[in-house]
Design goal:
The protein is built from 10 helices and 10 strands. By secondary structure, it is an alpha/beta fold.
Length: 285
């Protein structure tokens, strides 16, 4: 058993599983923060039998004070997953355009919703292409699934809980945005720059590259360098809870399945002007 069992699947292994009598359900969740919708990429070519599921409208709630990618309404999520053919207890594999962020948020959302048998295609669609595996432009029409959404399968932080964790002597709240955003030098998306007071910066490229994770041991070492011990409570946030979901996946791979996600993340934190904002000086030349 490796650290990735039940969390990640390589392209060749997935291809073998799809060629069985009971293949996993495939969800294409390609997404960009800015740019053409992922459905355009899906229409141009996708894994055979994959169903497109929109991150913004199906896997998240509408943007607002709760954040740019808040938790979805459970009933709406259940309807979207059933429409995509997700069945209770049946394996699901999610994939994105390669950076692993949207797929990780989809993985997290299904786990949070109580559906445990879900994995991420390691390396996403580019890994499938690199393995010279078949691509389809046919849009499947799956039989409606029967999955039941039961929220609470993974731990969640709201703003108050994130603040307590960041201030705790025995806990770590990871801010996985770029260092310049954490320091408050600039903010390209949200109206206020800076970070949650007490949060520790660990930019995502320091633990994942091109949507691929290092070994569990390497991840444990990297998180330990950021102050994450084997016992201390840990949570993560980013701009809107997408990149941070990837951090939670990395923490699972590192042996921390108790890691919490601040779903609203910075976009929720700054929605309340009374919440404190910290900035850090730039590193010395």
């Amino acid at each position: 058993m490796s650290a990735t069992d039940g969390l990640l699947v390589e392209a060749a292994q997935l291809a073998a599983e799809l060629d069985t009598a009971d293949p996993p359900t495939l969800l294409d969740v390609r997404w960009r923060l800015a740019g053409p919708p992922g459905r355009i990429d899906y229409a141009a070519g996708h894994l055979p039998s994959a169903v497109f599921v929109d991150l913004d409208t199906a896997l998240c709630g509408p943007p607002g004070p709760a954040g740019r990618h808040p938790l979805p309404d459970p009933a709406a999520l259940q309807a979207a997953l059933r429409a995509a053919g997700v069945r209770a207890g049946h394996h699901v594999v999610v994939y994105d355009g390669g950076d692993g962020m949207a797929a990780a948020r989809a993985w997290w959302t299904l786990r949070w919703a109580g559906h445990r048998p879900v994995r991420v295609l390691h390396g996403g669609f580019p890994a499938w292409l690199a393995a010279d595996l078949p691509v389809s432009t046919d849009e499947p029409h799956p039989v409606t699934g029967d999955v039941t959404v039961t929220p609470g399968g993974l731990p969640v932080l709201d703003a108050a809980a994130a603040a307590r964790l960041a201030a705790a002597d025995d806990g770590v709240l990871l801010d996985v945005r770029a260092a310049s955003r954490y320091r408050g030098e600039h903010e390209p998306v949200d109206p206020v720059a800076g970070h949650v007071p007490g949060a520790v910066n660990l930019p995502a490229p320091e633990y994942v590259a091109d949507g691929r994770f290092p070994s569990g041991a390497a991840l444990r070492d990297r998180f330990a360098d950021a102050g994450v011990s084997a016992e201390a409570p840990v949570g993560a946030y980013c701009g809107s809870g997408v990149t941070a979901a990837q951090a939670v996946l990395a923490l699972h791979l590192a042996g921390r399945p108790d890691a919490a996600l601040y779903v609203g993340s910075w976009s929720n934190w700054v929605a309340d002007p009374d919440r404190p904002v910290a900035v850090s000086p730039p590193p010395e030349a």
